[in-house]
Amino acid sequence: MSKIYLARPHAFIVSHMKDFLARNGYQTEPLQTLEELSMASFAGAAGAVISTAVSSTVGGRVVDAFTRIRKEAPTLPIAFATLLPFDQAVASLRSQLDLTDDRRFVKPDLNAEKAPGLGTEKTFIVLHLDAIRIGSDTSLADTLVRRHFSSSEST
Question: pTM to 2 decimals?
């Protein structure tokens, strides 16, 4: 089972995301502090999920978690978990992370399966709670997550 790090865990991530990722064959590792990102062994990890929630059990901002992951594992695929509508989440992330326009954000929809760049450091997936919640149709999110996180499993 491949490992996904849960960076900046929030109640939403720990409960729903953990179950969602397990159903897709991933083992999750919730981090207790942001400092653990510097000590984490990203070798063999499939990716990381960063919560965009205002608060987190480990403190720190989204940019802090993102910067530490990029420093330790520059090509690791990253997903963002959010409660915001997709367009609002993307605008906020671009602003907070000071990302260039060549970075792509993908949501689980009918076009996601064909999205270029999945699994690379320049493409991020954005997962809303409604897309991963038990009892809802998660098939689009399932496909997207498996495509995004599968390319790094052998690194």
Answer: 0.91
